[in-house]
Design a protein that fits this description.
Chain lengths: 116, 114
């Protein structure tokens, strides 16, 4: 498929465990974003990559959250010592450009994380 | 700090009606405004993007307008259909240099009754 893909679609884990969420952006898109959506809310920005580097990680809630994009394509969001409050849908988006006026973001289906 | 508000939070209309969804934002220094559709348990589908220099965009039965100076946007849906039932989210592209991160409203849950 040509869209953004995310795996797994659902992840159930226990409090205190470590989880990794994967995002495959649209081929050729240089910009990649992670957002988190809690029930009944709009998505909230977590982190933005331009190429391989995290250009803006101001939305990460604390140091338990970390994300990488080593080759400028696939990205992994990593959460250490998960807490029940981390339960949410984690959305990934990509766009072909950044830093210019026109910048449409395309979203993946999300990973629903449940921390028991 | 940019804040985005959507009114109403929920809306139910009979099939065939025209309807308007509202979005307001507090900081007019934006790059773009984007409208999305979200079906239950799904990701976001981009509907329309309006650049800050534009006043409206149209796609099929959808028309989105932008009044940047007053901090408002509307999404007009003509001749609504049951398949239009979903949550509609608006988001502004925060004027933050190269980041282009989106700030979202909480959405309007639309139900179109057959």
């Amino acid at each position: 498929g040509a869209g953004v893909s995310q795996t797994p679609s659902n992840k159930v884990t226990e409090k205190g465990k470590y989880v990794e969420l994967r995002c495959d952006p649209i081929s050729g898109h240089t910009a990649l974003y992670w957002y988190r959506q809690s029930l009944g809310q709009g998505p909230e920005f977590l982190i933005y990559f331009q190429g391989t580097g995290a250009a803006d990680d101001s939305g990460l809630p604390n140091d338990r959250f970390f994300a990488v994009r080593p080759e400028g394509s696939v990205s992994t969001l990593k959460i250490q010592r998960t807490e029940r409050g981390d339960s949410a849908v984690y959305l990934c988006a990509s766009s072909p450009f950044s830093g210019i006026v026109y910048n449409e973001q395309f979203f993946g289906p999300g990973t629903r994380l449940t921390v028991l | 700090k940019q804040e985005v508000t959507q009114i109403p939070a929920a809306l139910s209309v009979p099939e065939g009606e025209n309807l308007v969804l509202n979005c307001s934002f507090t900081d007019s220094a934006i790059y773009n405004l984007q409208w999305f559709r979200q079906d239950p348990g799904k990701g976001l589908t981009s509907l329309l993007l309006i650049q800050s220099s534009q006043r409206e965009q149209t796609s099929g039965r959808l028309n989105a307008s932008l009044d940047k100076s007053s901090g408002r946007s509307t999404l007009y849906i003509a001749a609504s259909q049951p398949g239009d039932s979903a949550t509609y989210l608006c988001a502004v592209d925060n004027y933050g240099g190269a980041t282009n991160k989106l700030i979202f409203g909480t959405g309007t849950l639309l139900a179109v009754q057959p």
